Amino acid sequence: MRILLIGINFGNYEKRIIDVIKKQGHEVFYMFDTDEHFSFYQRIFGETFAKKKTIQYQNKMLRIMPKSFDRVIVIVGRMLTSGFLYMVKKNSPRARYILYLWDDVKRVENFEETKDVYNEIYSFDLKDCKDYGFKHLPLFFNEFPNKRSDKVFDIYSAMFSHSEREKIIKSIDQQASALNKKCRFYVCLGRYTYLKRQKEIKKNHNGDIIYISKPIDENENYANMNKAKIILDVQFSSQIGLTMRTIESLGMKNKLITTNSYISYYDFYNENNICIIDRDQPKIDTKFLDKPYIEIDTDIYKKYSLDTWVKTLTGEITLNNYLGKYDIKKIEF
Predict the structure, then answer these.
(1) What pLDDT score was predicted for residue 181?
(2) Cα pseudo-dihedral 152, 157, 161, 166, rounded to 10
(3) Considering the entire predicted model, what is its pTM?
(4) Tens digits of per-residue pLDDT, 119-151?
(5) What tens digit of pLDDT does each residue of 162-172 get?
(6) Cα–Cα distance between 322 and 300 in angstroms, integer?
(7) 256 burial class (0-12, 13-18, 19+ CB within 10 angstroms)?
(8) Residues 6+ away with beta carbon under 8 Å from 59
(9) Residues contacting 169, CB < 8 A, separation 6+
Protein backbone atom coordinates (compact mmCIF):
# COMPACT_ATOMS: atom_id res chain seq x y z
CA MET A 1 0.00 0.00 0.00
CA ARG A 2 1.27 3.49 -0.86
CA ILE A 3 0.51 5.95 1.95
CA LEU A 4 0.69 9.73 2.17
CA LEU A 5 1.24 10.69 5.81
CA ILE A 6 0.80 14.35 6.74
CA GLY A 7 1.97 15.17 10.26
CA ILE A 8 2.35 18.08 12.65
CA ASN A 9 6.13 18.06 13.19
CA PHE A 10 5.79 16.86 16.78
CA GLY A 11 9.16 15.64 17.94
CA ASN A 12 10.10 12.11 16.97
CA TYR A 13 6.58 10.73 17.13
CA GLU A 14 6.07 11.00 13.39
CA LYS A 15 9.41 9.29 12.76
CA ARG A 16 8.22 6.36 14.88
CA ILE A 17 4.94 6.24 12.97
CA ILE A 18 6.82 6.16 9.66
CA ASP A 19 9.13 3.39 10.89
CA VAL A 20 6.18 1.23 11.91
CA ILE A 21 4.32 1.88 8.65
CA LYS A 22 7.40 0.68 6.75
CA LYS A 23 7.84 -2.36 9.03
CA GLN A 24 4.27 -3.31 8.21
CA GLY A 25 5.24 -3.45 4.53
CA HIS A 26 3.88 -0.14 3.21
CA GLU A 27 5.48 2.59 1.14
CA VAL A 28 5.14 6.02 2.74
CA PHE A 29 5.65 9.61 1.62
CA TYR A 30 5.79 12.01 4.56
CA MET A 31 5.29 15.75 4.84
CA PHE A 32 4.41 18.34 7.49
CA ASP A 33 1.12 20.22 7.27
CA THR A 34 3.04 23.50 7.18
CA ASP A 35 6.48 24.90 6.49
CA GLU A 36 8.79 23.76 9.30
CA HIS A 37 9.70 27.40 10.01
CA PHE A 38 6.05 28.45 10.40
CA SER A 39 6.39 29.50 14.06
CA PHE A 40 9.45 31.63 13.25
CA TYR A 41 7.70 33.32 10.32
CA GLN A 42 4.61 33.91 12.44
CA ARG A 43 6.56 35.43 15.33
CA ILE A 44 8.87 37.63 13.23
CA PHE A 45 6.84 38.52 10.15
CA GLY A 46 3.24 37.94 11.21
CA GLU A 47 0.36 35.57 10.48
CA THR A 48 -0.26 36.64 6.87
CA PHE A 49 3.35 36.05 5.81
CA ALA A 50 3.47 32.69 7.63
CA LYS A 51 0.31 31.47 5.88
CA LYS A 52 1.68 32.60 2.52
CA LYS A 53 4.84 30.55 3.11
CA THR A 54 2.66 27.58 4.11
CA ILE A 55 0.75 27.73 0.81
CA GLN A 56 4.06 27.88 -1.06
CA TYR A 57 5.29 24.86 0.88
CA GLN A 58 2.13 22.83 0.20
CA ASN A 59 2.31 23.68 -3.51
CA LYS A 60 5.93 22.49 -3.54
CA MET A 61 4.86 19.20 -1.92
CA LEU A 62 2.20 18.73 -4.60
CA ARG A 63 4.91 18.99 -7.26
CA ILE A 64 7.32 16.49 -5.70
CA MET A 65 5.04 13.85 -4.16
CA PRO A 66 3.90 10.74 -6.08
CA LYS A 67 0.70 11.23 -8.04
CA SER A 68 -1.20 8.26 -6.70
CA PHE A 69 -1.79 6.97 -3.16
CA ASP A 70 -3.91 4.17 -1.74
CA ARG A 71 -4.44 5.91 1.60
CA VAL A 72 -3.94 9.46 2.86
CA ILE A 73 -3.54 9.79 6.64
CA VAL A 74 -3.62 13.30 8.11
CA ILE A 75 -2.69 13.96 11.74
CA VAL A 76 -4.65 17.05 12.86
CA GLY A 77 -3.79 18.95 9.65
CA ARG A 78 -4.95 22.31 10.98
CA MET A 79 -2.75 24.17 8.48
CA LEU A 80 -3.82 22.27 5.38
CA THR A 81 -5.79 24.30 2.88
CA SER A 82 -8.86 22.83 1.21
CA GLY A 83 -7.21 23.63 -2.14
CA PHE A 84 -4.23 21.43 -1.27
CA LEU A 85 -6.41 18.54 -0.12
CA TYR A 86 -8.64 18.64 -3.19
CA MET A 87 -5.57 18.61 -5.46
CA VAL A 88 -4.30 15.52 -3.62
CA LYS A 89 -7.75 13.99 -4.08
CA LYS A 90 -7.73 14.86 -7.76
CA ASN A 91 -4.42 13.01 -8.16
CA SER A 92 -5.52 10.08 -5.96
CA PRO A 93 -9.30 9.82 -6.44
CA ARG A 94 -9.47 6.20 -5.30
CA ALA A 95 -7.51 6.69 -2.09
CA ARG A 96 -9.16 6.48 1.30
CA TYR A 97 -8.75 9.71 3.27
CA ILE A 98 -8.27 9.44 7.04
CA LEU A 99 -8.09 12.27 9.61
CA TYR A 100 -6.71 11.59 13.08
CA LEU A 101 -7.41 14.35 15.59
CA TRP A 102 -4.58 14.48 18.10
CA ASP A 103 -6.24 17.61 19.50
CA ASP A 104 -9.69 18.92 20.43
CA VAL A 105 -11.70 19.63 17.29
CA LYS A 106 -12.45 23.19 18.46
CA ARG A 107 -8.70 23.91 18.18
CA VAL A 108 -8.55 22.71 14.56
CA GLU A 109 -9.41 25.96 12.81
CA ASN A 110 -9.87 24.52 9.30
CA PHE A 111 -12.04 21.56 10.32
CA GLU A 112 -15.34 22.79 8.86
CA GLU A 113 -13.56 23.80 5.66
CA THR A 114 -11.84 20.45 5.10
CA LYS A 115 -13.92 17.78 6.89
CA ASP A 116 -15.79 16.65 3.75
CA VAL A 117 -12.52 15.44 2.20
CA TYR A 118 -12.22 12.59 4.70
CA ASN A 119 -13.80 9.15 4.52
CA GLU A 120 -13.10 8.47 8.20
CA ILE A 121 -12.32 10.70 11.17
CA TYR A 122 -10.74 9.37 14.35
CA SER A 123 -10.16 11.27 17.59
CA PHE A 124 -8.45 10.72 20.93
CA ASP A 125 -11.15 12.85 22.59
CA LEU A 126 -14.19 11.07 24.03
CA LYS A 127 -16.45 14.12 24.00
CA ASP A 128 -15.66 14.95 20.37
CA CYS A 129 -16.36 11.33 19.44
CA LYS A 130 -19.73 11.52 21.16
CA ASP A 131 -20.66 14.97 19.81
CA TYR A 132 -19.43 14.53 16.22
CA GLY A 133 -19.64 10.79 15.70
CA PHE A 134 -15.88 10.36 15.27
CA LYS A 135 -14.27 6.97 15.80
CA HIS A 136 -12.48 6.76 19.15
CA LEU A 137 -8.77 5.97 18.97
CA PRO A 138 -6.44 6.92 21.87
CA LEU A 139 -2.79 7.82 21.43
CA PHE A 140 -0.11 5.14 21.52
CA PHE A 141 3.09 3.94 23.11
CA ASN A 142 6.07 2.59 21.23
CA GLU A 143 8.12 -0.41 22.32
CA PHE A 144 9.99 0.17 25.58
CA PRO A 145 12.96 -1.62 27.16
CA ASN A 146 12.45 -4.19 29.88
CA LYS A 147 11.14 -2.65 33.07
CA ARG A 148 13.81 -1.89 35.68
CA SER A 149 13.29 -3.37 39.12
CA ASP A 150 15.50 -0.80 40.85
CA LYS A 151 13.73 2.52 41.29
CA VAL A 152 15.29 5.95 41.81
CA PHE A 153 12.13 8.08 41.88
CA ASP A 154 8.82 7.46 43.59
CA ILE A 155 7.10 10.09 41.40
CA TYR A 156 8.39 11.54 38.14
CA SER A 157 7.19 13.77 35.33
CA ALA A 158 8.44 16.13 32.64
CA MET A 159 5.96 18.77 31.45
CA PHE A 160 5.62 22.09 29.75
CA SER A 161 4.68 24.79 32.23
CA HIS A 162 1.48 26.58 32.87
CA SER A 163 0.48 28.10 36.22
CA GLU A 164 -2.01 25.36 37.10
CA ARG A 165 0.50 22.60 36.44
CA GLU A 166 3.16 24.25 38.57
CA LYS A 167 0.74 24.62 41.48
CA ILE A 168 -0.22 20.94 41.31
CA ILE A 169 3.39 19.78 40.97
CA LYS A 170 4.39 21.77 44.07
CA SER A 171 1.49 20.33 46.05
CA ILE A 172 2.28 16.74 45.05
CA ASP A 173 5.96 17.26 45.83
CA GLN A 174 5.18 18.61 49.30
CA GLN A 175 2.88 15.69 50.08
CA ALA A 176 5.35 13.10 48.83
CA SER A 177 8.32 14.70 50.60
CA ALA A 178 6.41 14.63 53.89
CA LEU A 179 6.22 10.86 53.43
CA ASN A 180 9.95 10.63 52.59
CA LYS A 181 9.23 9.87 48.93
CA LYS A 182 11.69 10.93 46.26
CA CYS A 183 10.31 13.05 43.41
CA ARG A 184 11.78 14.49 40.23
CA PHE A 185 9.85 16.97 38.12
CA TYR A 186 11.16 18.77 35.03
CA VAL A 187 9.19 21.90 34.17
CA CYS A 188 9.92 23.38 30.74
CA LEU A 189 9.40 27.15 30.63
CA GLY A 190 10.72 28.02 27.19
CA ARG A 191 13.83 30.15 26.72
CA TYR A 192 12.28 33.59 27.17
CA THR A 193 10.28 32.73 30.31
CA TYR A 194 13.22 30.79 31.76
CA LEU A 195 15.46 33.86 31.52
CA LYS A 196 12.71 36.14 32.80
CA ARG A 197 12.11 33.99 35.90
CA GLN A 198 15.74 33.38 36.88
CA LYS A 199 15.56 35.32 40.16
CA GLU A 200 12.35 33.58 41.17
CA ILE A 201 13.78 30.15 40.29
CA LYS A 202 16.94 30.70 42.34
CA LYS A 203 15.00 32.11 45.28
CA ASN A 204 12.56 29.19 45.40
CA HIS A 205 15.03 26.47 44.45
CA ASN A 206 13.76 22.97 45.13
CA GLY A 207 15.93 19.98 44.29
CA ASP A 208 12.90 17.94 43.26
CA ILE A 209 11.53 20.53 40.82
CA ILE A 210 13.93 21.45 38.03
CA TYR A 211 13.08 24.32 35.68
CA ILE A 212 14.50 24.03 32.18
CA SER A 213 14.48 26.26 29.10
CA LYS A 214 13.87 23.53 26.52
CA PRO A 215 12.25 20.08 26.67
CA ILE A 216 14.22 17.31 28.30
CA ASP A 217 15.93 14.95 25.88
CA GLU A 218 13.55 12.19 24.80
CA ASN A 219 15.89 9.32 25.69
CA GLU A 220 16.64 10.84 29.09
CA ASN A 221 12.91 11.22 29.73
CA TYR A 222 12.24 7.56 28.93
CA ALA A 223 15.19 6.51 31.10
CA ASN A 224 13.75 8.51 33.98
CA MET A 225 10.30 6.99 33.46
CA ASN A 226 11.91 3.58 33.60
CA LYS A 227 13.50 4.48 36.93
CA ALA A 228 10.22 5.74 38.42
CA LYS A 229 7.42 3.97 40.24
CA ILE A 230 4.78 6.57 39.43
CA ILE A 231 4.25 9.17 36.69
CA LEU A 232 2.37 12.41 37.35
CA ASP A 233 0.03 13.62 34.60
CA VAL A 234 -1.66 17.04 34.60
CA GLN A 235 -3.61 17.60 31.40
CA PHE A 236 -5.01 20.99 30.35
CA SER A 237 -8.22 21.68 32.23
CA SER A 238 -10.30 21.55 29.03
CA GLN A 239 -8.70 18.32 27.78
CA ILE A 240 -10.68 15.09 27.96
CA GLY A 241 -8.54 12.86 25.73
CA LEU A 242 -5.72 10.95 27.39
CA THR A 243 -2.29 12.56 27.06
CA MET A 244 0.70 10.92 25.43
CA ARG A 245 2.27 10.90 28.91
CA THR A 246 -0.60 8.74 30.15
CA ILE A 247 -0.35 6.19 27.34
CA GLU A 248 3.43 6.04 27.59
CA SER A 249 3.18 5.38 31.33
CA LEU A 250 0.85 2.50 30.46
CA GLY A 251 3.42 1.21 27.96
CA MET A 252 6.21 1.58 30.50
CA LYS A 253 4.04 -0.17 33.15
CA ASN A 254 4.31 2.72 35.57
CA LYS A 255 1.63 3.60 38.06
CA LEU A 256 -0.03 6.95 37.36
CA ILE A 257 -1.34 9.96 39.26
CA THR A 258 -3.59 12.03 37.00
CA THR A 259 -6.05 14.91 37.06
CA ASN A 260 -8.03 13.37 34.17
CA SER A 261 -11.05 11.66 35.75
CA TYR A 262 -12.19 10.31 32.36
CA ILE A 263 -9.42 7.73 32.54
CA SER A 264 -11.74 5.65 34.74
CA TYR A 265 -13.82 4.75 31.64
CA TYR A 266 -10.93 3.02 29.86
CA ASP A 267 -10.46 -0.73 29.85
CA PHE A 268 -6.95 -0.55 31.38
CA TYR A 269 -8.11 1.42 34.42
CA ASN A 270 -7.22 -0.18 37.74
CA GLU A 271 -7.32 1.79 40.98
CA ASN A 272 -4.20 -0.04 42.16
CA ASN A 273 -2.31 1.44 39.19
CA ILE A 274 -4.04 4.80 38.73
CA CYS A 275 -4.81 7.50 41.28
CA ILE A 276 -7.18 10.28 40.16
CA ILE A 277 -6.68 13.59 41.95
CA ASP A 278 -8.73 16.77 42.01
CA ARG A 279 -6.91 19.54 40.17
CA ASP A 280 -8.19 22.19 42.62
CA GLN A 281 -7.33 20.18 45.72
CA PRO A 282 -4.71 17.67 44.52
CA LYS A 283 -4.47 15.27 47.44
CA ILE A 284 -2.72 11.92 46.99
CA ASP A 285 -4.13 8.77 48.51
CA THR A 286 -1.08 7.89 50.62
CA LYS A 287 -1.85 4.15 50.46
CA PHE A 288 -1.59 4.34 46.66
CA LEU A 289 2.10 5.25 46.78
CA ASP A 290 3.10 1.86 48.14
CA LYS A 291 0.66 -0.35 46.25
CA PRO A 292 2.36 -2.73 43.80
CA TYR A 293 1.67 -2.36 40.07
CA ILE A 294 -0.94 -4.83 38.85
CA GLU A 295 -0.27 -6.29 35.39
CA ILE A 296 -3.12 -5.67 32.95
CA ASP A 297 -4.42 -8.14 30.40
CA THR A 298 -1.96 -8.59 27.50
CA ASP A 299 -4.65 -8.09 24.85
CA ILE A 300 -5.68 -4.77 26.43
CA TYR A 301 -2.05 -3.68 26.73
CA LYS A 302 -1.33 -4.36 23.04
CA LYS A 303 -4.36 -2.33 21.94
CA TYR A 304 -2.53 0.86 22.93
CA SER A 305 0.67 0.07 21.04
CA LEU A 306 1.83 2.07 18.03
CA ASP A 307 1.62 -1.11 15.97
CA THR A 308 -2.14 -1.38 16.64
CA TRP A 309 -2.65 2.37 16.14
CA VAL A 310 -1.04 2.25 12.69
CA LYS A 311 -2.91 -0.91 11.67
CA THR A 312 -6.19 0.78 12.64
CA LEU A 313 -5.51 3.84 10.47
CA THR A 314 -4.28 1.75 7.53
CA GLY A 315 -7.44 -0.37 7.74
CA GLU A 316 -5.62 -3.64 8.47
CA ILE A 317 -7.62 -4.25 11.63
CA THR A 318 -11.07 -3.18 12.73
CA LEU A 319 -11.42 -0.58 15.44
CA ASN A 320 -11.01 -1.83 19.01
CA ASN A 321 -13.34 -0.89 21.84
CA TYR A 322 -11.19 1.00 24.34
CA LEU A 323 -13.93 1.61 26.91
CA GLY A 324 -14.78 -1.96 27.80
CA LYS A 325 -18.20 -2.01 29.45
CA TYR A 326 -18.91 1.70 28.96
CA ASP A 327 -21.03 3.14 26.16
CA ILE A 328 -19.56 6.42 24.92
CA LYS A 329 -23.05 7.72 24.14
CA LYS A 330 -24.01 7.47 27.80
CA ILE A 331 -20.97 9.24 29.26
CA GLU A 332 -21.74 12.69 30.67
CA PHE A 333 -19.25 15.51 30.00
Answers:
(1) 95
(2) -70
(3) 0.92
(4) 999 999 999 999 999 999 999 998 876 666 788
(5) 878 999 999 99
(6) 8
(7) buried
(8) 84
(9) 157, 159, 185, 187, 209, 232, 234
